[in-house]
Amino acid sequence: MRERVHIDTDILIVGGGTAGCLAAWEARKVGGPKLRITVVDRANIRHSGSLAAGQNALNAYINQGTPEDWVAYVRYDLLGAPVREDILLSVGYELNETVALMEKEGLPIKKDAQGRYLRRGKWNIEVNGRWLKPITAKMAEKAGAQILNWVYVTELIKQDGRCVGAVGFGVRDGRFYVIKARAVLMAAGGAAGIWRSRYEGDAHHRMWYVPFNNGASYAMMKRIGAEMTGFDTRMIPLRIKDTYAPAGTLAIGVNAPMVNALGEVFMLEKEEYVRMGGHTAPTPVRVWACYREIAAGRGPIFMDTTRGDPEKVAGLREQYLDMSPTTVLYWAAHDIDPAREPIEIEADSPFLVGAHAACCGAWTIGITRMTTIPGLFASGEALGQAPSRYISGCWTCGRIAGRHMVQWLEGEGTEVPELDPGLVAQLETRTFAPLERWSKQEFFTNGKPVRGVLPREMEAHMQNVMEDYCGGRIHYFTVSEPYLEIARRRIDRLRRDQLRYLVARDLFELERAWDVINRLDCCQLVIEHISYRKETRYLGFVTRTDYPERNDAEYDCFICSVWHPETDTLVFKKYPYEQIVPGDRTKETI
Amino acid sequence: MPPYVLPDKCDGCKNEADPWCVAVCPGNLFVIDPVTSKALCRDPGECWDCMTCTIFCPRQAIVTQVQYQLAPIPAELIPRLGKRHITWTLIDCKGRIYRLENTILAGGEED
């Protein structure tokens, strides 16, 4: 048995990020001084997660119109597909107030000549956001939450049908953490590294989304039987080639048009793209259009910064230093000046997210943020069917979750009885199993385990399967049932009989082992959800060659799955879509 | 753009309980070599290139490079952390030097 740390708390927040830290702050505000709040993070909350390098804009802000107009835009940007308008509205009503709060906490927000927040496009404002993460983390610190840095949560604990805590290991101290809680918030981010990276070796983590977000949110919730939704979407980001830094700074930031190799502003010049919205077409459509141009021999695709606003183009390096210093150094190394030459863009590999332009996450009850497992709440990227919330929306969502958790504690979220020692022992064995296996290995002369698989080997196998058979870039992100069937067989094989060979030589590798365990669960969700939706609703993100049309009669609804451990299968159900904001779903209202 | 540590500059933050690079890396990638007592990134391929380690290093001992498979040498980007700003010195492949500045915290708040 490992050395154990037992913690008893009221609210456990898994993931000290954008949503988690604000959930802690709000829970303290409404729950009073006696409330015990615990935040757990695999790294140091001041610098962990997807904000580690900063961001230069907040992409959810009501600059004009109403929260209803914003929801109409979010819906439009996902081609009018069903979204949880109730959840989005709850965010929209509090977005601007939350941004004002964070400005007061020290976030530098740029201003225009009239002293208003500097707009970038309709729903975005510009910030100096390099320090977004420390400023966000300060909210959890101010809330007086107990902060456990460097603890990797491996499993949620379910007892009598209710989520009552989580277990994990200290990535530095090697201890086994057992945390009992009356309410648990899952806010551990989305998933990178499901599909093959664009690069290998020392650049295999040169990607848009933070590679340390491993899909643990989705995997852990799936494993305790929460209803999961939206894995038939995925985010394919068009980004600056090679550094995969955000390209919105070039598009709406400096008004650079997107052009093909012939210099055509194809989104505005070609009827088939104009019909779909031109240069402000829904995000997936722009990916689809770029790859259509490339397939027709008119690639590469560029953001033509030589045609952008010259003053703004001159400030691009500073803007990128706020979120992607790599890009600035890359330009310097290649002697690229965006004022003199267009910037090439490309699609990065797909990512699973719930707060950017995709819908992955847990299904939640009303606007409570509670999942279908009592006591388990979801926020940030872990919350399903409410896309385009971005940073400011995740802050807001965290606050709303914090409030509802306090309500739960005042009602049904009563004291948790003692944890079942047998279950805890089982979870401990499971948590450290790859380390134990290493100690029983024999080794080849070069140190490779004879009958053990290293996390990186298994990750590569998984990423190859997903790339080749689940709509990877090599197939221009298209997919069909015959490919999916191979993906299913191979991923099931890894999950069902290869994990028993997974070994880890030390705690650092144990993190990687759990990363791949979690990612494999995400693969199952993605394959089965895409397979279930026999239509093409998210053109560009998931383009099915066998079902190229939309089928509203069958699939204009939400699709959820529950995992059944006895059979290792996902059982699907549908929920009807409820339109709250009236009007044509494929049109913006302002 | 993984970080590499210059041995002559790194002192392992000998007076700190937790060396800065070890304390801030979101990937848990920095360790102190028990033999040399100097820091190193234990797996450069795992790095996401956020440069937080480089910004915080009190000795400016950490150099970040673009992976050679993506860009040739030389070029340098050297941050210097102030109270409310980061000042960056950028040296491009032609040897031209630029001085750039980011505001990181709004005025009036404690650092």
UniProtKB/TrEMBL annotation, chain A:
InterPro entries per UniProt: FAD-dep_OxRdtase_2_FAD-bd (IPR003953), FAD/NAD-bd_sf (IPR036188), Fum_R/Succ_DH_flav-like_C_sf (IPR037099), Fum_Rdtase/Succ_DH_flav-like_C (IPR015939), SdhA/FrdA/AprA (IPR030664), Succ_DH/fumarate_Rdtase_cat_sf (IPR027477)
One annotated GO biological process: anaerobic respiration
SUPFAM superfamilies in the record: FAD/NAD(P)-binding domain, Succinate dehydrogenase/fumarate reductase flavoprotein C-terminal domain, Succinate dehydrogenase/fumarate reductase flavoprotein, catalytic domain
GO MF annotation: an example: electron transfer activity
Domain Fumarate reductase/succinate dehydrogenase flavoprotein-like C-terminal, chain residue ranges per copy: 462-570
Domain FAD-dependent oxidoreductase 2 FAD-binding: 10-384
Keywords, in A-Z order: Flavoprotein, Oxidoreductase
Keyword rRNA-binding on entry: no
One term under GO cellular component: plasma membrane
Name the record gives this protein: FAD-dependent oxidoreductase
UniProtKB/TrEMBL annotation, chain B:
Domain 4Fe-4S ferredoxin-type: 1-35, 38-67
Name of the featured protein: 4Fe-4S ferredoxin
The entry's keywords: Iron, Iron-sulfur, Metal-binding
A Pfam family assignment: Fer4_9
Organism: Ammonifex thiophilus
Domain of life, per lineage: Bacteria
GO molecular function annotations of the record: iron-sulfur cluster binding; metal ion binding
Gene3D superfamilies documented for this protein: 3.30.70.20
